[in-house]
Write a sequence for this structure.
């Protein structure tokens, strides 16, 4: 496992599940990428694919978890040591980029190999497993995750819909609106800093003529599409 400082405010991850297949010297390399936020979820993918591709010779895996990518694991599953899991993990660590930095996390990768009868050698295996994951990432749908400050804005039923639309138009992430017996609560997410909070309070006052205020709900990781 590799430890990194805990400072991430955003990162990229795979949006759901994605599959990609390569054939290299008659061997089939089927790569499955799936979003995973825990080790149990990552290992569950391996178990599922062992059942689905039960007649395959190898089910090699790698995963990276956490906003700071603090959990990193790989497994060669019978291939020569260091020829499968490690190059797969390295391909994941190079994947995606925000602001010019590789930032892919919360993703599990499994490469299912059907042996084609031709030995690839250690170097050939490293290249094959690395290329399998890199090629899959090149076509995988990705989503950005950001740590945002959550706020709740109370409004009357008659104005909640308009307020939600105006906030969306202003580029503010609206998570949803909850309607109570007397009032509605519009839930929003903004950048996790005091400057963004002050700017939001000013905009909200302008939109509602000062009739609504925002209450803090803490912070959370949110998908930003």
């Amino acid at each position: 496992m590799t430890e990194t400082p805990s400072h991430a405010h955003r990162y990229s991850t795979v949006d759901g599940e994605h599959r990609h297949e390569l054939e290299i010297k008659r061997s089939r390399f089927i790569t499955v990428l799936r979003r995973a936020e825990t080790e149990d979820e990552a290992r569950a993918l391996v178990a599922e694919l062992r059942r689905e591709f039960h007649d395959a010779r190898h089910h090699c895996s790698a995963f990276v978890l956490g906003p700071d990518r603090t959990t990193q694991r790989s497994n060669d599953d019978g291939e020569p040591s260091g020829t499968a899991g490690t190059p797969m993990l390295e391909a994941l660590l190079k994947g995606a980029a925000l602001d010019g930095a590789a930032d892919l996390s919360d993703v599990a990768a499994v490469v299912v190999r059907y042996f084609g009868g031709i030995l690839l050698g250690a170097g050939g295996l490293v290249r094959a497993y690395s290329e399998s994951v890199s090629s899959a990432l090149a076509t995988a749908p990705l989503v950005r995750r950001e740590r945002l400050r959550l706020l709740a804005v109370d409004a009357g039923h008659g104005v909640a819909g308009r307020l939600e639309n105006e906030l969306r138009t202003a580029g503010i992430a609206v998570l949803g609106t909850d309607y109570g017996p007397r009032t509605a609560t519009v839930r929003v997410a903004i950048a996790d800093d005091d400057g963004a909070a002050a700017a939001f309070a000013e905009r909200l006052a302008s939109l509602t003529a000062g009739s609504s205020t925002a209450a803090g709900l803490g912070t959370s990781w949110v998908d930003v599409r």
Notes: The longest strand covers residues 142-156.
